[in-house]
Amino acid sequence: MRLGCPRRYPALRPLTLVTTLFFISPVIGWRPWPHNKTNAHDLVFGDSKKFEGSSEFVRLRYHMGPVLTANITVHTIWYGTWERNQKKIIRAFINSISAVDSKHPSVSGWWKTVQLYTDQTGANISRTVRLGMEKNDRFYSHGKSLTRLSIQSVIKSAVTAKSRPLPLNPQSGLYLLLTSADVYVQDFCGQVCGFHYFTFPSIVGYTLPYAWVGNSAKLCPGVCAYPFAVPNYIPGLKPLKSPNGDVGVDGMVSVIAHEIAELATNPLVNAWYAGQDPSFPVEIADLCEGIYGTGGGGSYTGQLFNGEDGTTFNMNGIRRRFLVQWVWNHVVSYCTGPNALDQ
Questions:
Q1: Cα(170)–Cα(162) distance, rounded to whole angstroms?
Q2: How far is CA 130 from the centre of its chain?
Q3: What is the pLDDT of residues 114-147, one digit of tens each?
Q4: Helix (H) or strand (E) holding 134
Q5: What phi and psi, each to the nearest 5 degrees, are found at residue 26?
Q6: CA dist 322 → 54, 115, 256, 315 (Å)
Q7: pTM (2 d.p.)
Q8: Are 66 and 267 contacting, i.e. CB atoms less than 8 angstroms apart?
Q9: Where do runs of H (alpha helix) occur along the chain?
Q10: How far apart are CA 308 and CA 118, in angstroms?
Q11: CB-based contacts of 182: which residues, under 8 Å, 6+ apart?
């Protein structure tokens, strides 16, 4: 859930629900936040979560909670106004996670790092990630400004709808809420570009792992769609050309990848994370924010590929290309990706 100069926010623990209900935190990604301030996690982990080769100070541990070992189904909620091609880009990425015939380096090759994580029985994260049912909420049923709690209400509406409700699948289902470019979500752009958590039975009726990711094209592309857009306060830096011709959606893809990887390895915020306090989990994608290729770290993405059309990418999917951040490989204590030059 992060990108650029990372900022972390506490994930809410169930036992503190009443007192901290309005401080639920996301999992995020490297972003060039304008308020680039050092925070506690920068001090604890130093540069280890930003630079490709550093591992000495990282203590990613398993905390005995469940991980997603059964076939994973991503149920998508399209909130707001979406173009057909925008949906196609995101669907293609999700379907590419399990594709076996994509050209190397591939999205499915990226997912192999996530598969290395296991539960207490030794069972690995599922190889299979498939697109499930979808729900359109084109009339903004909960308005164009959402809080973190109202996001759960949107999910409730989708799973309890009288017509074609999303199926309830707490064990292996992920619920992905995607908001269109004209929707503002609490802390969007200023602190987060996406986050994940799980729904509260008191709101939704069930405990369901979910993630939210917003389209930043109108609100803050220089933050949440970086490096396909750059912020005004970084003069002289030229944006890269997005691989699918949609800056906002191409920026969303890496955030979606970030959240799905962390939902698979830490769905209830009690499985794989670094740090002493589960209220502030640093997860497998957080450790590699902003790293997309060999040598990546800080504001440098790492070594990427340039297409014949001038676009920039680092992975191949089903008939499309994507730019997706790397994730932490706990076996070698390193950020890894399928486009690494030493593979």
A1: 20
A2: 16
A3: 999 999 999 999 999 999 999 999 999 999 999 9
A4: strand 129-137
A5: -90, 170
A6: 25, 20, 12, 5
A7: 0.86
A8: yes
A9: 17-20, 40-45, 84-96, 107-115, 148-159, 221-224, 247-265
A10: 39
A11: 80, 81, 144, 218
